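Researcher: Sequence recovery benchmark, item below. Answer with residues only.
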């Protein structure tokens, strides 16, 4: 499979809503010409090859960006890392093509048609435009892709016929070579195939003949395999500076989709991704701390939107970045033998994601879990902990979960504790005498009681004079 990101010089910049004309130029000095332009610019009469001065005369509001080959290379490498989720055999074909060996992946993705749909959908979600072609050989796929045919050829017998229809420009041969062949009346790949092999090699070199043979599968071609980097880093230039958080989130979605593909390639997740917002005075970094590693772009986008709602941006943002930070193994969802076990696993994942959403909205310190301690005094038998922390101590089923911060003294009438009426003692006494070594000693007798409304409460009586009664907890 070949993917040709033929609009990469334009699309390395953040996608816009099409309202602002944008042109990418290349050349030197006064020879700057339009290389690519968006649809808004095309509607105003701009096209590739148009001199910049003429373009500005047609579209005074034109946003102009110089072509940046380094940015295109970085983007192509990030796209290669994204593509490695479909196969581990990905090759770069600069300046804007990728080759994927997909034969071993077809069953996993439900066949060629299903895989093509998935790839196209992901490319669109990232905001890129790409031609796609599949063929029995990498060079044939690349040539078909250059023709913008979105062709899929699976039968090697049909390959020479499909390639034969292509103009020579699709081969990537030099202009001099193409013009020389055209002067001989050779206009298509099929015309080349009809020439005597010896004469073709003598006039154009054995290299061109080997390329024809490779395209038809007559000889193998060695290609360098792309290696996924250990961490992800992506950058994106905005067309116009902005403080609009919704626009920032939309633009960041591209980097998040790239990150998702990168993580799927490595079967890893992120737990502390860092977002960078560049402005004229520097860069601000916003880090997310997740309860568990994730590779879900939609979930990360949701958390980013929550954080940005209460995050103060000092100046309008001109560029953005995303760093994965160190990678971590994805948590294995607990799978039970029966359906209930699987449901429990889904509930656990939902619970951890709820913690992440609340922390994104309220701040990390606002959401904590509770952990039991080996301590008899109820007010000291717990501590704040990371949500999901498992206590080594077992809870006492005879004690309520809701413990008052400060015990509330109860009135006493006719020798009985009183709370909106007389309390009815339901359980026997639990005596707690401890803490003499730290100066916070207690000596109490605890009881479970029921108030006149039927609510169950946890009360105690001090064993020291004057033997007062206190409310210490409430049962759910």
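Model:
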């Amino acid at each position: 499979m070949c993917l040709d990101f033929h609009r990469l010089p334009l699309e390395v910049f953040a996608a816009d809503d099409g309202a602002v004309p944008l042109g990418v130029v290349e050349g030197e000095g006064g020879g700057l010409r339009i290389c690519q332009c968006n649809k808004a610019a095309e509607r105003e009469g701009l096209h590739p090859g148009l001199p910049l001065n003429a373009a500005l005369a047609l579209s005074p509001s034109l946003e102009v960006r110089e072509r940046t080959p380094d940015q295109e290379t970085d983007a192509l490498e990030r796209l290669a890392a994204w593509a490695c989720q479909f196969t581990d055999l990905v090759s770069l074909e600069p300046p804007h093509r990728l080759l994927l060996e997909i034969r071993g992946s077809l069953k996993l993705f439900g066949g060629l048609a299903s895989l093509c749909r998935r790839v196209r959908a992901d490319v669109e979600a990232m905001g890129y435009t790409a031609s796609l072609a599949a063929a029995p050989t990498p060079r044939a796929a690349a040539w078909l892709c250059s023709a913008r045919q979105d062709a899929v050829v699976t039968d090697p017998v049909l390959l020479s016929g499909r390639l034969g229809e292509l103009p020579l420009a699709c081969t990537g041969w030099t202009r001099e070579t193409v013009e020389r062949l055209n002067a001989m009346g050779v206009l298509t790949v099929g015309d080349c195939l009809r020439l005597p092999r010896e004469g073709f090699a003598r006039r154009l070199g054995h290299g061109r003949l080997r390329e024809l043979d490779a395209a038809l599968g007559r000889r193998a071609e060695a290609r360098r395999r792309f290696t996924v980097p250990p961490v992800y880093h992506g950058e994106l230039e905005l067309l116009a500076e902005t403080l609009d958080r919704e626009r920032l989130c939309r633009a960041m979605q591209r980097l998040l989709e790239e990150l998702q593909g990168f993580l799927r390639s490595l079967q890893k997740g992120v737990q502390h991704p860092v977002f960078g917002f560049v402005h004229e005075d520097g860069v601000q970094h916003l880090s997310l701390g997740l309860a568990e590693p994730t590779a879900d772009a939609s979930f990360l986008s949701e958390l980013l939107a929550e954080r940005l709602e209460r995050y103060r941006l000092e100046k309008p943002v001109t560029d953005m970045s995303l760093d994965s930070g160190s990678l971590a193994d994805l948590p294995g969802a607990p799978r039970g033998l029966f359906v209930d076990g699987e449901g429990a696993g889904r509930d656990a994942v939902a619970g951890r994601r709820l913690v992440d959403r609340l922390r994104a909205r309220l701040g990390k310190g606002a959401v904590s879990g509770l952990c039991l301690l080996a301590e008899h005094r109820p007010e000291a038998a717990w501590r704040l902990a990371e949500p999901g922390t498992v206590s080594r101590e077992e809870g006492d089923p005879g004690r309520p979960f809701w413990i008052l911060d400060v015990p509330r003294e109860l009135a006493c009438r006719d020798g009985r504790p009183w709370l909106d009426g007389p309390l009815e003692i339901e359980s026997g006494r639990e005596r707690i005498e401890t803490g003499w070594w730290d100066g916070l000693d207690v000596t109490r007798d605890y009881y479970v009681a029921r108030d006149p409304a039927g609510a169950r409460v946890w009360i105690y009586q001090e064993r020291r004079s004057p033997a007062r009664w206190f409310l210490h907890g409430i049962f759910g």
